[in-house]
Amino acid sequence: MPDDLQLPKAYDSTVVEDAIYSAWTKSGYFTPENLPNLDKRKESYCISLPPPNVTGTLHTGHAVMLAIQDTMIRYARMSGKRALWVPGTDHAAIATNSKVEKILMKEEGKTRHDLGREKFLKRVHDFANKSHDIIVNQMKKMGVSIDWTREAYTIDEKRNFAVRTAFKRMYDDGLIYQGHRVVNWCPRCHSTLADDEVEYKEENGKLYWIKYGPFVLATSRPETKLGDTAVAVHPSDERYKEMVGKKFMIPGVLGEFEITVVADYSVDIEFGTGAVKVTPAHSFVDNEIAQRHGIGMKQIIDEDGRMMKNCGKYAGMTTLEGREAIVTDMEKMGFIDHVEENYKHNLSVCYRCGTTIEPIPSKQWFINVGKEFTFNQSKHNPIKGINDGQTVTLKMLMKHVVENGQIDILPGRITKVYLNWVENLRDWCISRQIWFGHQIPVWYRGEEIYVGVDAPKGEDWEQDPDTLDTWFSSGLWTFSILGWPDMNSEDLKIYHPNSVMETGYDILQLWVTRMILMSTYFLGEIPFKKVYFHGLVRDEQGRKMSKSLENAVDPLDAIKEYGADALRLAMMIGQTPGTDTKLTDDKIASYRNFTNKLWNISRFVFMSVDQVRSIDQIPEPKTLADKWILARYAQVVARATAHYEKYEYSLLGELLRDFTWGEFADWYLEIAKVQKKNGESQTDEILLYVLEGLLKLWHPLMPFVTEELYKQFDRGMMIVAKWPVFLSHPEASEGSSNPVAQFEQLREIVTALRNVRAEYKIAYGKPIDVTIVSASSLEEYQDVIAQMAKTGVVTWTDKATKLEGALSLMAGSIQLYVPVGDLIDFDKERSRIGSELEVVESYIKRLALKLENKEFVDNAPAEVVQAEQGRLKEAQEKQKALKRELDNLG
Ligand SMILES: [Zn+2]
Asked: What distance in angstroms lies between residue 356's CA and the mean position of ligand 1's atoms?
């Protein structure tokens, strides 16, 4: 043991993690310019952190994202790339705005209008600042090796400049326009919502069949009759053929009004009577019909969701009150034909507050996704398949880069979802009627309008009070954090496109698509080469984690109790792209145990060698075990590296865990003790060589404990250590004479003998004799077998003759006889095993019957059926083991 070894017996993550994090920060290595051998780092690797909203604290969804991205960036850094990970936070306009509104209402009973724009915004900024600090602190606890010197905020000055520049450029290209369109309006948030900010809720309502002049038609919203301007029928509907194109006066609760009958292919012949009323001001579908046929609109619902002045005695009512009053009057006047109860339909609600959406016409800013413009190709990273100066549309660009594989999406099945979404993309409404956000860079003076990066000169200009959809600024994220719009920015040249975008699949449409739109348009580049979608984190029963269910694992609590490394491993192992993962305390605790195991293994090595040092040349193997561990280590380096390259973190974690624990610790460390006793001096070198490499392989996944242990080697910090090189190892070749295969046989013999001890309850203190048949090539490793299985007399023979009073068993393909006649009573064992077997078999029968019962399988919850299947499998394994034991007895 080295005299100067200072390594506590037990690993204490609470002490180590903070100290290690501040050492990393001090080193400056999170900033790529400070990395060693910068000139040799030709290839760059960049990730933009999906900026967390400044609305609160980090949850497990953030934690899994941080764990994955930190693993990516650490691997890239160690494998010699210019690795940059840019942090930031998102102002999340509408979310933050409404959060602060809620607090204001709860604590002071005031609305934002009571405070006024300026004071309200100050409140929002204060709130956001506080929230930001909490988030940053939490991120550090997770161990993120992110470049804090480049931290960005979606609404800081640089990003605001980028946003204004972007708006102006798109406006000049004719891609941004102002239009009166029906928008999704939340009467509570007082703002428009993008299509994908609308959620749908199935509701049981009523379907009213109303008498409508010469028609009878069905509607779930009779109050909108006040805004009707047309009736639509299908062009091939014979029933109404004569009426198409004609005008009719329709009697209503406020007197007669005029409608035009139009024939439109969007009408469903099968629905109701085949005729539908058209309210262009308050329905997307109706609005499109009206536009196709040149029919005007009549607005009757205002921004508060109330009936407008033009609704006579119903004015001022909410739409629901209006509906009730109008239905009552219609009944009195004989307009109701009949009412269908329990009519199931989808209600659109605000994704923020759950209020029913009212489609209303409103003057808004839009991005035209179908308008043609001239494509500006990138000089650095041109998009393949499109030429500079070619006429394109935004929709075309978005489709092109994914369809021809320039952006690779993991898991692949999401590619289809993406393309389908782009196919159905409508113009993007980018204005929001809230105060917190990037104010639209448009100024008005009377009839004059000015669009610019900065305010116009002169008096009396007034800026558009609306703000931009939060996804407008986060859509610029991959390049606005790299210095854009300065096209000479070094960062932009080096780090764009980003290498990978890692995020949750729930924001594919809200965010990922927008980044692709913005980057292809502004830079003529893809924003990233790969998209990695992680799944959602769920609880043990597969439920979404939420505050109200009280099933959420708080990342900070988990870190305090088990350490960040344990939490990270629990999130990475079992996690594959697009698949939801389950996270439980037990799972995190088991990885805490693994962290401790790694500590103990390392400590054992450090204490057993004469001197801790780095071994850079592959040590010379002398024994079979040496050759085996070096060959296996070489294979593990190769496989682990491949898993890192392919983002296969679950397989990676399992591979490393199995090798560390199941091979290096359980076998080589044990054998090393024997070898050292025998004076095999190469053993130290091999232990150190494999351990150092293993710690490096683990580092991206569990950075804290590995960094702490690496100090023992005294060669700088692990965060910038060189990735273990895979050298094709002569010993790793295939074939039965290779050391791996040979050592496997040795392992089988020892395992078989250990099983004998366990199954027949023979204490380790009692040596057992063994006769090994036809395996003389292993004879020279008899001392290894003796040490690991505590054998007595070992006999090597080529003749397979069954010995009296001996167990007969197979170790792989090798026959073993273990004379245990004086240690166990064969008859008693037979009857013991026999009766255990009976119990198990009757249990299997019962389970099988249950699972054959169709009624049970069809009606029981899937988890219950699954659990029963698991039990059956377990029982069958047990049955197999007992039968083998019985066979062994002969
Ligand atoms: Zn709302």
From this structure: 8
* Per-residue pLDDT tens over the stretch 183-208: 899 998 888 887 767 888 888 999 99
Distance 183 CA to ligand 1 centre (A): 13
Does residue 822 carry a pLDDT above 80? no
Please give the distance, rounded to the nearest whole angstrom, from the Cα atom of residue 353 to the centre of ligand 1: 4
**Structural domain span for residue 636:** 582-743
Predicted confidence (pLDDT) per residue in 424-476, tens digit: 888 898 998 888 899 999 999 999 999 999 999 999 999 999 999 999 999 99
Mean pLDDT of 224-232: 95
Do 669 and 609 touch, CB atoms closer than 8 A?
Answer: no
Amino acid 728: pLDDT: 59
The per-residue DSSP string of 218-252 comes to EES-GGGGGG--EEEE-TT-GGGGGGTT-EEEE--
CATH number, domain at 687? 1.10.730.10
For residues 622 and 720, membership in a common domain is answered with yes
CA 432 to ligand 1 centroid distance, Å: 12
pLDDT of 821 over the 80 cut: no
Q: Output the known binding site.
A: 547
Closest CA relative to residue 779, chosen from 762, 796, 758, 757 = 796
**Cα 350 to middle of ligand 1, angstroms:** 5
Q: Tell me: the pLDDT tens digits for 86-140?
A: 999 998 888 888 889 889 889 998 888 889 999 999 999 999 999 999 999 999 9
In a domain, 468, yes or no: no
Shared domain for 313 and 269, answered yes or no, is yes
Report CA(346)–ligand 1 centroid distance (Å). 17
In-domain check, residue 173 = no
Please state, in angstroms and rounded to a whole number, the distance separating the CA atoms of residues 75 and 116.
50
- d(CA 187, ligand 1 centre) in Å: 7
- CA 189 to centroid of ligand 1, rounded, Å: 4
Does the structure show a pLDDT above 70 at 737? no
Type of residue at 316:
G
| CA–centroid distance, residue 360 to ligand 1 (Å) | 14
Ligand 1 center to residue 191 CA distance, Å?
8
Query: Measuring CA to CA, which residue among 603, 475, 521, 428 is closest to residue 5?
Result: 603
Indicate whether 561 and 589 sit together in one domain: no
Which amino acid is located at 545 in the chain?
Answer: M
What are the binding residues for ATP? 547
Contact (CB, 8 A) for 773 and 815 = yes
Q: How far is ligand 1, taken at its centre, from the CA of residue 96, in Å?
A: 12
Predicted confidence at residue 251, as pLDDT, reads 93
In whole angstroms, what is the distance from residue 475 CA to residue 511 CA? Answer: 6
State residue 729's pLDDT score.
54
* 402 part of a folded domain: no
Same domain for 867 and 731: no
At residue 820 the predicted structure's pLDDT band, cuts being 50, 70 and 90, is: confident
- pLDDT of residue 778 exceeding 90, the answer is no
- Cβ-contact 777, 738 below 8 angstroms: no
